[in-house]
Amino acid sequence: MCLKNIIFHIDVNSAFLSWEAVFRLYHKGGTLDLREVPSAVGGDMTMRHGIILAKSIPAKNYGIKTGEAIPEAKRKCPGLMLVPPNYGLYEQCSAAFMNILREYSDVVEQYSIDEAFVDMTASCRLFGTPEEAAEQIKNRIRDELGFTVNIGISSNKLLAKMASDFKKPDRVHTLYPEEIQKKMWPLSVSEMFFVGRATTKKLFSVGIRTIGELAAADPRWLRDILKKQGEIIWGFANGIDLSPVLATPPANKGYGNSTTTPCDVVDTQTARKVLLALAETVGNRLRADGVRIEVVAVGIKYSDLSYASHQKRLIASTNLTLEIYEAACGLFAELWTGNPIRHLGIHTARAQSDGFTRQMVLFDETDYEKLARMDETLDGIRERFGIDAVKRATFLNQPIDHMSGGISREKRTVDYSKITVR
User: Fold this and answer.
1) What is the pLDDT of residues 118-154, one digit of tens each?
2) For residues 18 and 36, what is the distance between their CA atoms, to the nearest angstrom?
3) Which of the following is catalytic: 109, 115, 280, 323?
4) Residue 109 designated active-site
5) What's the CA gap between 411 and 405, in Å, rounded?
């Protein structure tokens, strides 16, 4: 096999569950391998985070799906073993996984916490054929770290990713361009990357059920039906993907955080506290990356799961917590219908590097330098002594986390002294 490019996609099998299983077996004296029984990692239902985050293959055989509600999963499998999430552990496992990959190539793109693309074009010959190199990587991860991965091999990222999704676990699969017709085209369009449930339903409605039928369709007709996405997925179905593997990720164009509240928010005062907590974490991330943003948006998910959002462009770019908060409060006041809220988010856009001089505005008496010094001081204290070392008085004796959003506090660590490890 002579390829111009050799791209691997490496995906950890049932990552969160596998990492928890390995940790319990090798570090907590456990004897039960969670991967071999119907089990799942699930959020805290008391905090309204009660969804399945990862499941074992035996759990998958019961029809349990990632993202579904825990009560629904329990109805499918009453004996389902649930374990709490531990993102601190996941980050450590992910780092160890990526370190092994970087021993094989200088061009590793971390696609998510549990998957990566590796450009093996320059280095593959050092380890044998592409298949031999992939087997070596797969076996090293299994033997040294204790969990398994699937590796897909092809000439571009799209086909490598599709290949890694073939039969699991602990497998190496190829999907070279000449194999597309045999291995990929017979699959349902629902298996195609970038094709979600709504797009699958629409394609089914026009008679396109397989990837091969999608590949054979007229791209102009697909564009009429699905707009730009139609042309993109037609290219994917034909194995076309020109995106490079990026060892350095592109700069963020926007930053945001959101949170599901412990109970429905029904008053403005509580909503504003949640928005302040979100502005704290968004502002902290902006300053850590040395950027400012020009657009602020607020998103509201109501108790009936309907969603609405509103955005505005700021007069001047900012990374100040209180400036982001005030913009968010104004948007919230315009957007909120008065219905109970279960989820709030602040999102930003048009991020740019922090080489900026603020344009003065007539009658604006805000001391922006003072606000910047305050934010810088708070960031320094929290970095050195922990995020709870200092908080605003409004959050004292309140159920709202003073720095909300992202990975919630209860998901970051697990107190194993309070649970039984089997």
Assistant:
1) 999 999 999 999 999 999 999 999 999 999 999 999 9
2) 10
3) 115
4) no
5) 12
